[in-house]
Amino acid sequence: MATAAAGVALWLHGPGAAVEVFLAVLAFIGGFYHRNGAE
Length: 39
What we know:
- This protein has one domain (2-35).
- It contains two helices and no strands.
- By secondary structure, it is mainly alpha-helical.
- Helices cover 74% and strands 0% of the residues.
- The chain has helices at 2-11, 17-35.
């Protein structure tokens, strides 16, 4: 999932530099939060 977000971010590279960082952080935090048990 994080790899997909990174790929999309790379694809959007240019006007979406901020979007790129946002997606990467969002995917990372989302996966981390999910992993640490939001039961």
